[in-house]
Amino acid sequence: MDAHTAKPSPELPHVVIVGCGFGGLEATKVFEGAPVRVTLLDRSNHHLFQPLLYQVATAGLSAPAIAAPIRHMRRHQRNLTVLMADVVAIDKARREVRLADGQAIPYDQLIVAAGATHSYFGNDQWQEHAPGLKTLADAFTLRARLLSAFERAETLPDDASRAPWLNFVVIGGGPTGVEMAGTLAEIARHTLRDEFRRIDPGRAQVLLVEGSERILAAFKPEQSAQAKAQLERLGVQVRVGCRVVGIDEAGVDLQTADGGRERIAARTKVWAAGVAASPLARTLDVPLDRAGRVIVDEHMNIPGHAEVYVVGDMAAATSLEKDGTRKPVPGVSPGAKQAGRHAARQILARMNGRAEPPFRYRDYGNLATIGRKAAVADLGSIQFSGFAAWLFWLFVHVYFLIGFRNRVRVFADWAWAYFTFQRHARIVVEPKGGLRQDEA
Amino acid sequence: MDAHTAKPSPELPHVVIVGCGFGGLEATKVFEGAPVRVTLLDRSNHHLFQPLLYQVATAGLSAPAIAAPIRHMRRHQRNLTVLMADVVAIDKARREVRLADGQAIPYDQLIVAAGATHSYFGNDQWQEHAPGLKTLADAFTLRARLLSAFERAETLPDDASRAPWLNFVVIGGGPTGVEMAGTLAEIARHTLRDEFRRIDPGRAQVLLVEGSERILAAFKPEQSAQAKAQLERLGVQVRVGCRVVGIDEAGVDLQTADGGRERIAARTKVWAAGVAASPLARTLDVPLDRAGRVIVDEHMNIPGHAEVYVVGDMAAATSLEKDGTRKPVPGVSPGAKQAGRHAARQILARMNGRAEPPFRYRDYGNLATIGRKAAVADLGSIQFSGFAAWLFWLFVHVYFLIGFRNRVRVFADWAWAYFTFQRHARIVVEPKGGLRQDEA
């Protein structure tokens, strides 16, 4: 019986990991074969490859292509117990996490990686009209609404009643908003061509609204401009310096840069503007930043609790640069992965009376896709855009996708989509979900 | 401009088809290129290959593998308009169908193919505890419940509390019930093996309950016995002559053949027992049979209305046999397809002053799969079971699956599943859908 397959003894330290996104999953892997018992808790049964979630929302990929059951992925890790459970609170004093069903799970070491959720900046009533994109359920909701909007327009008797169903507003010009807007334009102009008899889907309007002065603010200004030009070539209207001040069922109210107001009649809205840390952060009773993220130290610890780590989108972490300055760690998957690994390694190091060097974020650059053959890449020393960036984006995403088979599947789906313009997952699962037939 | 691509003139007769299952889809195809305008109405945007729906419910296939957008499938049929709309009533006198949104669509000729729904024999309160399997939404509900039951058991502290989550009851011993029970046993014994730490999924109990004296009543008695033996080899308990008299959240009450009562504690129940025709049948105001099906004549017409046809699971149709006797048409996909084709051809024949010969059902036999390498086939002159029947079943289903690409995809998924015992679609989309964490 070797160490790898031996059942861990109950006397080993118990590491609890909350959340199996990129941060939690990477932390879990570090403990493989280590003399600890690990319990990984997630509200869902799958790890989700979130960078491709917009492809599920836009019918390009099916859900299983980007999601894999956690316990299947980690079945060989004998010191790991995976529990599908909803953690509702963390009790630092008693060193336990509390589940929605009332159970409490004690820990010796805790890594919290519960991610982020949408933020509507205090306008929670906007949520039902402009859903966001964080989970597979969100993606199915959006997919049903996008596809049903075209279906609904086809059933209506005249152009005036059809128009609001053929207007799509994407709110937020970050990578998700840009991907959604570009793909929506592609669907309208290519995928659905020749399939309708009463409407011309190519006449659908896709509007991307960004409050700041440029889209893709994490990129260099020239690249933002390139991305805007590429989106416009795809048929997307890009409005920068334009704030959303109201969202209801029938449309969106905008405040333009010059302070004017504008009303857009649009049945379908997508929220890609704001995120906030998981509400679990508040139960830690420690200082949070404005986005509700936990302010952590150079080892991802919370103040006064070297046994509690917070990583990923839930944490406001800094990286110690070579010049001694501290830079915020961006809320992207490499940041979450590196922080998760750091926390896990620090736990193991401390068990041996050592310590890791302070966390340093390794920045591989920024990458955003816009649509068919269009993307922007900023690798620090080199920036490029267009088809080359799109190929690079494709390669990176397929490469990092979890599980060999998913990679093959996603690649096959994309090759098919590229040559045929078709999207194989154009399925509205809940017939009434996006249709709202009883309404005007 | 040739006849095939010309826009149909509004003076052409208007054929309305309600429902795009096997019957409605086949009828639609017959009208390709014919001098009619066709409007096809369906509540969903996709045609569903229902014989493989249980594979979606049991995580073997993703939804897009067995569902295709109707308007994409028929995009080349220029005389066809597809509308995603919910038909709520048929007005024979005014010759129009009414939609949920209040619109009325007039017809010259009408083919109603709205299918069937679950019947709980007057116990509609059973539905939430024992969902059935007719739509993709049903399949997702079942998938979430099946997978979440194992997840829930893993979170519980002792065998007594876990047991009800590891008991699965399938109600109804027809093809769907047999497929579900066999696949569930395979999941418990093979797919999930070695992935749990606290429970042994292989100890899950799968119970198949059938009210009559044998399962697969459409087959010969020897084949029912073979199917029962194959199920038992897979680990399924088969109970025949056993009626369900109660279903609640925590379990099922049975009445055994000798009149005794038995209570089974089981959190997960699947309803595969009863179907009833679409409630749309009642709005036709014509004689119905006990299952709510419309009694139609030898051309699928309702009494006194040669312009109204009902086909598929909604119709109680008979076949004129060679010996002059009439036999009921079984509620299987070949029956619906043949009846749909017959109705459409009869419409075209009557437009030319002719008539089709009375409907004769061509019976290709019966086929039911049980699980890995197990099936039964009855081709009339020949009966076989086991591995050969399973290979035959596989071939037939992949062959008939709509769309070349879906065939390749399904075949690849199955080849993978066969050699690895894995099921790629093990995704619980709504984390709380099947889990009910707040309950005991």
Tell me the CATH topology of the largest domain in chain A: FAD/NAD(P)-binding domain
Extract low-pLDDT stretches of chain A.
1-6, 431-440
Oligomeric state: homodimer
Most extensive interface: pair and counts? A-B, 55 and 55 residues
CATH architecture of the largest domain in chain A: 3-Layer(bba) Sandwich
Classification by helices and strands of chain A: alpha/beta
* Main beta-sheet strand count, sense and barrel state of chain A: 6 strands, mixed
Protein name (chains A, B): NADH:ubiquinone reductase (non-electrogenic)
Domain FAD/NAD(P)-binding (chains A, B): 14-322
Catalytic activity (chains A, B): a quinone + NADH + H(+) = a quinol + NAD(+)
Keywords (chains A, B): FAD, Flavoprotein, Membrane, NAD, Oxidoreductase, Transit peptide, Transmembrane, Transmembrane helix
Account of the protein in words:
Chain A is of the alpha/beta class. The first copy, chain A, has two domains: 14-43 and 85-118 and 276-351, FAD/NAD(P)-binding domain (3-Layer(bba) Sandwich); 125-271 and 372-420, FAD/NAD(P)-binding domain (3-Layer(bba) Sandwich). In chain A, 29% of the residues lie in helices and 25% in strands. Chain A contains eleven helices and 27 strands. In chain A, the strands form nine sheets. Chain A has a six-stranded mixed sheet, with helices on one face. Chain A has a four-stranded parallel sheet with strand order 13-12-11-17. Chain A has a three-stranded antiparallel sheet with strand order 6-7-8, with no helix packed on it. In chain A, α1 (22-30) runs parallel beside α9 (333-351). Chains A and B meet through α3, β5 and α5 of A and α3, β5 and α5 of B.
